[in-house]
User: What shape does this take?
Amino acid sequence: MPKDFILALDQGTTSSRAILFDASGHLVDITQKEFEQHFPKNAWVEHDANEIWKTQYSVAREVLQKNRLEPKQIKAIGITNQRETTVLWDRKTSEPIHHAIVWQDRRTASTCKQLREDGHAEAFQQKTGLRVDPYFSGTKVKWLLDTVPKARERAERGELAFGTIDCWLLWKLTNGHTHATDVTNASRTLLFNINDGRWDTDILEILDIPESILPEVKPSSGHFADCFVEALKGIPVSGIAGDQQAALFGQACFDHHKAKNTYGTGCFLLRQTENGALISQHDLLTTLACSTDSTFKYAIEGSVFTGGSVIQWLRDGLGIIESAAESEALAQSVSDNGGAYLVPAFTGLGAPHWDPHARGTLCGITRGTSAAHVTRAALESIAFQSRDLLEAINADFNDTIEELRVDGGAAKNNFLMQFQSDLMQVPVVRPQITETTALGAAYLAGLAVGYWSDRDTLAKNWAVDKVFEPAISKDAADAQIARWRQALERSKEWATD
Ligand code: ADP
Assistant: This one.
């Protein structure tokens, strides 16, 4: 067994994980703990930041103990995290002043509506690359300052600190010595100007957020701090990135020729720009990709709300499959979808349609429609939605990609991957290691301490599991896309609330 490793802390929306990687980028071991989701009101989602820390620290300790490793055998730690989730804490006591407000939380919808009505949307997009939406941290910070008793006064006096989850973990790992984040996480706050790489004073003023609460922003790869906590004492934290950007890096998508799509609960498609910020004309987000020095890298990002979770619905809601994996064989038991198209707009539609009132729709069913057809339509819907993202991204870039690299739970499904390639008319490539988010964080950390020498070494580590080449003609793909479009139209603007 090799002597030294990189440790990735992968802090997700439902669980905290610690993953050990060796120099060839192989996953050596993994530990994981789930934590509680709090839903205090309809569309509100919170986490206990202390519980996040406790679970994250305990899985890190466990993975070292299990493998009988001393802290000195860990050359560096890389953090990757659920993005946008917002924590405000007291600098002296390190106590959060409120539960963390999670990215999914919609409590600031009316604030965002007001900001849009006041005509701020375009300036916010130009400066931050984002839409004015409750998804991002900025209005969540404002809500905390406006709502928690005395919060604003304490913030003005410099007593409070704000951070996304990476920043909170770094604070705890260093016993409150380091208050910093990386560019990818900063770019999801709605407060960071991605053009000049600073917290934007105009936006801070509009949202009434004092600059004193904000962390220092650093490149994603580089020395952040050394850990103070006992079990990890002295290990440098030298990589930080938000989960989707970390996955883009872990997939070795270092230029604009490739893109990556993650098929988890939702789908996230990211493509790095050729040079500089590209503000989307097609309702996508511009975001900062991982940087290994002070120069900025930009990416265009699109996301689908209901991706792999439509398969969970087949399992838990309809009961027509017992496991997600079964969906592959069931879909292949019929020769086509039998004319059935499912639009899984269960919580509205994300990019590029952005219709919060759209709802799930199943079109074209007949007396002959079977569970197999519905399952096939469900898997196809993941691919159709991802293809809509790629079309919008390509329209922004004015060209297409050479290949799509895939990861996430549903990327295991061969039927889905083949159909994705057919629709997109590009090769879809699944790597051997699909834990690309954690791998990306490990790469960022390892690069900074010389564990890996450069990006070329990382690109060489990346190994293919399976390539799916388009197996139908473009005309045949277009015909199916046209039918999908019709179904999509029928799902829009359905909800009346
Ligand atoms: P997340 O990180 O968002 O929790 P994962 O990457 O773990 O998601 O992927 C889980 C999702 O993938 C679930 O929604 C599940 O339904 C789906 N999934 C898992 N395996 C398969 C499969 N073989 N075919 C289709 N979908 C699958």
